[in-house]
Amino acid sequence: MKHFVRVGILTTILTVLIGSGLDNLGLMPVLASVQGAAIDALFRKHIWVISFLFSLIIGFMLYSFVVFRRKPGEEGDGDHFEGHTSLEIAWTIVPLGIVMYFSFLGASALAETRRADPNAYNITIVGSQWSWRFDYTDYDFSSTELRLPIDRQSLLTLTSTDVIHSFWVPEFRLKQDALPGEGMERELRITPTLLGDYKLRCAELCGLEHAYMVSDVIVMEVDDFEEWVEEQIGGPSGDAAARGEEWTKQFGCVACHSTDGAERIGPTWFGLYESEETLVDGSTITVDDDYLFESILDPQATIVEGYDTVIMPPTGESMTEEQILDIVEYIESLTE
Ligand code: CUA
Questions:
Q1: Cys staple from 258: which of 57, 191, 266, 268, with CB 3.0 to 4.6 Å?
Q2: Which protein residue's CA is at the shortest distance from atom 1 of ligand 1?
Q3: Distance of CA 156 to CAs 94, 138, 174, Å?
Q4: What are the two backbone dihedrals, phi and then psi, of residue 178, each rounded to the nearest 5 degrees?
Q5: Rounded to the nearest 10 degrees, how much is the dihedral formed by the CA atoms of 255, 260, 262, 265?
Q6: Higher pLDDT residue, 170 or 315?
Q7: Is 21 exposed, middle or buried (0-12, 13-18, 19+ CB in 10 A)?
Q8: Which atom of ligand 1 is nearest to the CA of 164?
Q9: Main-chain dihedrals φ then ψ at residue 219, nearest 5 degrees
């Protein structure tokens, strides 16, 4: 009996040391959403259970190493035990109870993150290799950065134009995949609680530039947010080329095409207009409005030599004709 008391004390001390150590380690970035609070509470409980179980095993082990080691003169085998029924029942039922309790906690936390506010702002988030676009469907405009009002719930509907991406802002705690295909939209509710600038990172390996699939997330005062919305309604201003430049950012074209001659996956737009290109079949063409329009709408129609292994996504299909014409104007403006 005295052995159990000693191990009990040892386990308690180890649990407190390891548990408070892990709890104060600052493993998580700052918490910035209502939904994240449920996750953090669950995480903290896990840390304490993990600390206890680890201490229990290590405590018994260390104690046995020291107290039950072979003493001088002991030559025979140790005592032989033939099982212990009540102990076996206990170590089956206790963990079962803990696991069931935690499945209940997990389900409650999940329900907490899904609690719906009927007045939530609607934002559709579109992932493409390798950029994000944010469609403010309540106001009919799109943005390349995610701006959210503080203390108001936003209902994010996630989708993808090509492969699986994943929406992850560590400060909000939640993570949700963006899946391609009709009817595969996924929802995520975020109520930011802290003003500031955050980063949205793609958390699903999605190809060559996955590591750079990052967007700005800005949590604003409600008044500032509404002012920003007013400015955005009606789309980008300026001439066709200026609007085209904005579209190329929103649709993520610039992830693959540089505008300064730099080498990327797709051909650079710098000096592309009116240049002479050799096609995969050996013939040559001069890049003009018609060729650019066709290439945006149907990228596989005419392939320039050296780009036959590159598959451009059919991004143009989700653009309006005006948007494509603006982009053609923009590309033209990049040739002096
Ligand atoms: Cu998108 Cu990784």
A1: 268
A2: 165
A3: 40, 12, 12
A4: -110, 115
A5: 30
A6: 170
A7: exposed
A8: 1
A9: -95, 125
